Amino acid sequence: MTDRMANAPRLAILVKGWPRLSETFIAQELVALEDAGHSFDVWSLRHPTDTRRHALHDRLQARVFYLPEYLRDEPARVTRAMAATARMPGFGKALAAFRADYARDRTRNRIRRFGQACVLAHEKAGSITAFYAHFLHTPSSVARYAAILCDLPWSYSAHAKDIWTSPDWEISEKLGPGTYGAQFGVTCTAYGAQRLRSLASDPSRVRLLYHGLDLDRFPAPPRPRDRGSDDPMRLISVGRLVEKKGFDRLIAALALLPDDLDWHWTHIGGGELGDALKAQAATAGVADRITWLGALPQDEVVAALRAADLFILPSRVAESGDRDGLPNVLMEAASQRLPILSTPVAAIPEFIDSGTHGLLVEDSPDALSTAITDLARDPARAAAMAEAARDRLLKDFAMAPGIETLSGLLSDLAGAPRPAETAA
């Protein structure tokens, strides 16, 4: 640990929920920042809903605090915070910023963000000198209002849904350097960075930092499996059961596979479309070839990847505009030398060059079915692409470079004086 890190002021890091099985990239980053010497508290906007945890979650030493998930649930706490923050020098400016936002977004969620910010500003430890939020939508709104209340700097990390479903006006204001914009922001794909920079008055404040993968957490890949004549091809997918993951199209594709191809598909992850997708599988006549495992801790996910023959993630753009960034699970599959089939959506081509590191095809059932069949018939080609994907992971997508850059940015943020700002 360097002297600079040992003496670094404490950060307040905001997340949507802690812990979350589907957000290992956040847990990986926070643990790595602690290992780099950073001291911070985690403030979660929601209580956990997952019943299990990753081992990575248990490595985090930071204190975790939970803001009122709904203001009505803790009225006394919210009232105390509102009374206390009303006496803060930044309250008038924060209230003006909130009113300007509310005029364009008259929702209860907007009110909740301001209430949570008041609680955060009132209850934060006195040594906190900066805010850092994961996701550019709700967590960054809370961080921004709290930063104005406390007259402190803030920054954000943007990912996927938050980039593509937030309105342009809100992104532009948060990116600054207008009224209390972020000092800097990082995002995990060039695809997302391009959109954010197009909305920023100072594009240089948007930094591209791939999450990468902490390869020390993963075992060496197994030897390629020699599939016997009576052994089905083991297909696997990991991802939430939501529209943008495209699993409805995959189920339709599975129903089109040739009769002479023996296969079994395993899905890992929870989500709101679970019942509908299971009903679709039953109607398509493939339910008996599918295992639904639900959300699992990472060690069990990795074990399932190691036992599979092909990883499939049929991502697409949802009707709402929501879409993936660069799903970490693609890198996790590559770490275990597992062939990958996905789609050329969002930032996925930033990791996978189709035909070299895996196959990227349209998300239509016909295209997916044909690709699965082709890879099943040519295991040597599939193995060669899996080897190339792992080589690319080791060369270009390790975690350490991004953490080193982020660590420096956060140290500068937490120690920097607050620039002069004008009220909204």
Give structural notes:
- The protein is of the alpha/beta class and 424 residues long.
- It has helices at 3-6, 24-35, 55-59, 75-85, 91-104, 108-123, 138-150, 161-165, 168-175, 190-199, 247-254, 274-284, 298-306, 328-335, 365-377, 379-396, 400-415, and strands at 10-17, 40-46, 63-66, 128-134, 154-158, 185-187, 206-208, 233-238, 263-268, 290-294, 310-313, 340-342, 359-360.
- The chain is built from 17 helices and 13 strands.
- Helix 14 links the parallel strand 11 and strand 12 (340-342).
- The longest helix is centred in the last third of the chain and has 18 residues, at 379-396.
- Mean pLDDT is 93; it is low at 1-8 and 416-424.
Element layout with pairings:
Blueprint: H1 3-6, E1 10-17, H2 24-35, E2 40-46, H3 55-59, E3 63-66, H4 75-85, H5 91-104, H6 108-123, E4 128-134, H7 138-150, E5 154-158, H8 161-165, H9 168-175, E6 185-187, H10 190-199, E7 206-208, E8 233-238, H11 247-254, E9 263-268, H12 274-284, E10 290-294, H13 298-306, E11 310-313, H14 328-335, E12 340-342, E13 359-360, H15 365-377, H16 379-396, H17 400-415
Helix pairs in contact: 4-6, 5-7, 6-7, 11-12, 11-15
